[in-house]
Recover the amino acids of this structure.
């Protein structure tokens, strides 16, 4: 049995199928998915249907594009011009897929605690115990078990504030901050406040900002597997931070990382059918 972690699919279903074939993915294997399963690419509906059908073999964490779809479906928001979600939103099984998706977590930790899966990252001020606790707060609401309904959460999810963590945050401010750290974080300033404006390569980052994984953190030496940042091109320069988003939707590659061996296997983006 092998476990493969895959970066942002973003609706690239043909590449996902080709990658699974390339790695010889079998009935005993497990697939970890670092979020942003959908949007921007051409086949979001096919991706969700494929993963829903193989749910018993999947461990999924949600990304910002997945949450955006849920905010449209359940929170009453309108699609953006750049979205490619029309086919999914008009599908007969969109409600089933949406309710299944909102049951997925923001954070997954392996049984041996050697690997952690998240979409954007884990801020350095949080221990793994805290990260799991905070993730559970948002997950409970999304799954319909919190004091705030999932409809209300998705209605008020958007926003950049608060951009810095405080333990005394409450209500939607607290839920929004937790969600943004897990699904939108890239660069932090000296106060560990999130910067949302720079999405490009590190050599173009504004002065005074560092990637979240280059801050010292009081955590065990587990490998954090994350996506969200295609401009890194799979390179962090940090042994315990594995960047999985290698820009398939932008014409580059879809990458799988084997947890047992550390091997990286990539599938090049395919020509439009």
């Amino acid at each position: 049995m092998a476990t493969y972690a895959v970066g942002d699919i973003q609706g690239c279903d043909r590449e996902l199928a080709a990658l699974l074939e390339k790695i010889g993915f079998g009935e005993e294997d497990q697939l970890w998915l670092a979020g942003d399963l959908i949007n921007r690419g051409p086949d979001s509906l096919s991706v969700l249907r494929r993963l829903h059908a193989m749910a018993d073999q999947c461990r999924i964490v949600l990304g910002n594009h997945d949450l955006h779809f849920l905010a449209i479906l359940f929170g009453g928001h309108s699609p953006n011009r750049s979205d490619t979600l029309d086919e999914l939103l008009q599908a007969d099984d969109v409600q089933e897929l949406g309710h299944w998706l909102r049951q997925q977590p923001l954070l997954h930790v392996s049984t041996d605690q050697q690997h952690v899966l998240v979409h954007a990252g884990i801020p350095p001020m949080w221990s793994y115990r805290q990260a799991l606790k905070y993730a559970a707060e948002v997950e409970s609401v999304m799954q319909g078990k919190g004091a705030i309904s999932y409809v209300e959460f998705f209605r008020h999810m958007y926003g950049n504030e608060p951009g810095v963590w405080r333990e005394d945050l409450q209500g939607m401010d607290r839920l929004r901050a937790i969600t943004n750290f897990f699904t939108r974080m890239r660069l932090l300033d000296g106060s560990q406040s999130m910067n949302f404006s720079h999405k490009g390569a590190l050599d173009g980052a504004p002065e005074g900002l560092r990637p979240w994984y280059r801050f010292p953190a009081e955590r065990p030496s587990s490998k954090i597997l994350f996506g969200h940042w295609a401009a890194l091109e799979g390179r962090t320069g940090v042994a315990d931070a594995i960047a999985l988003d290698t820009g398939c939707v932008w014409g580059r590659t879809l990458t799988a990382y084997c947890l047992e061996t550390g091997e990286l296997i990539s599938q090049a983006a395919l020509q439009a059918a």
In short: Residues 128-142 form the longest helix (15 residues). The chain has a mean pLDDT of 96.
